[in-house]
Amino acid sequence: MRVATVIGNRPQFVKAAAVSGPLRREHEEVLIHTGQHYDDELSGIFVRELAVPPPDRELGLGGGSNTAQTAAMLGALELLLAEIAPDVVLVYGDTNSTLAGALAGAQLLMRVAHVEAGMRSFDRTMPEELNRLVADHVSDLLLCSSEAALANARAEKVAGVIEVVGDVMVDVAVLLQPRARERVEVLERFGVRSGEFLLATLHRAGNVDDPNRLRAAVELLGGVHEPLVLPLHPRTRVRLDAAGLLDRLAGAPGIRLCEPLGYLDFTSLLCHCRAVLTDSGGVQKEAYLAGVPCVTLRDRTEWEETVRLGWNTLVDLDAQAARAALRLPAPAIRPELYGDGRAGERVVQALTRLAAGPPRGGRRRR
Ligand code: UDP
Questions:
Q1: Is residue 134 over pLDDT 90?
Q2: Which of 36, 221, 284, 319 is the most exposed place for a label (fewest CB within 10 A)?
Q3: Closest-CA residue to 199 (of 212, 180, 174)
Q4: How far is CA 362 from the centre of its chain?
Q5: Residues 209-223, buried b or exposed e (16+ Cβ, 10 A)?
């Protein structure tokens, strides 16, 4: 079986790290990097740290609006996928690269598999929600992280086969959190002590693109008055700078701003912090796995189980609600929600069955 995997941004490198290893043991993979994230801190370091194979093809298509970027990717992927002629096109998550890979594969009548299918925030103002909706509806195989995701896909009557395989990011976290926890020199670098600081991330378009919301986020983070490490996503840095808020944030008491961190350094801070403040999807889940309470800077989440169990509190950008959430004690129980750390193997088994089956959906070439 030949699989063409389309990835492009930071979390997709983490997800591919869980699948590429088991996939390449028995099959051929052609890894296509669209270039959606091109900075070393958001892509290259993951290749080095997580043993993701270096991309076989790089499209270099970062920048531009969501629509322009997706259109450019579609054009490039149509040609490249036709040349590679894979048995399956594999996409992850909810980015422009996910949408472009899934749609280009489907248009070429190739079998398409989507990992992290069925996730919904039910907020169609989020570009990620639009990307995963379309990707799910053109996919032949929907590989879900949880039963809740499977129920979402079923409720929408998707055409493809749906399976729960567990969460591939969990595979990486289960493997690397213990090692990352030992990297205590990272704490020294930021002058923080285990259990006595907060870790934050902020990058969603809904929070950083609107200057009023960005200001509210700065007030919130600057107002916690505790040691707080904030690795700044490049998009957020640009928006803060443009809004004249960067110095204000950098000067707030307790704040330690830095460049985006590699996975191991970030995970070390995640494992040792008192709580996380984030608008990231992946970080909410990783905090749960690390047993760290999470305060989510959004009003909805795809990872609703973590909220139901009391490990995650949605505060949007309400500073008072965030301070109240940070005072909550950690819940006593933390059941296994997203699989056992072997999702990557199940993804490969499911792809193998897909490739052995009939070609795409019985559709005829025109
Ligand atoms: N991450 C990282 N360094 C950082 C911030 C995040 O390695 O400075 C990792 C994090 O552990 C998780 C992934 O990046 O695995 C999440 O990516 P992001 O928040 O960009 O995307 P989302 O999950 O929101 O799609």
A1: yes
A2: 319
A3: 180
A4: 32
A5: eeeebbbbbbebbbe
**Closest by CA position to 121, among listed 280, 304, 325:** 304
Please give the pLDDT value at position 366.
40
Q: What is the pLDDT of residue 339?
A: 87
Residue 137 falls in the annotated catalytic set: no
| Residue to probe by mutation, ligand 1, list 177, 283, 294, most atoms within 8 Å of CB | 283
Distance of CA 261 from the midpoint of ligand 1 (Å): 9
pLDDT tens figures, 38-89: 677 777 788 888 888 999 999 999 889 999 999 999 999 999 999 999 999 9
Structural domains counted in the chain? 2
Return all residues near 235 (Cβ < 8 A) that are at least 6 apart: 203, 208
Q: Is residue 313 part of a domain?
A: yes
Is residue 362's pLDDT more than 70? no
The verdict on 219 and 275 lying in the same domain is yes
Atom number in ligand 1 closest to CA 282: 23
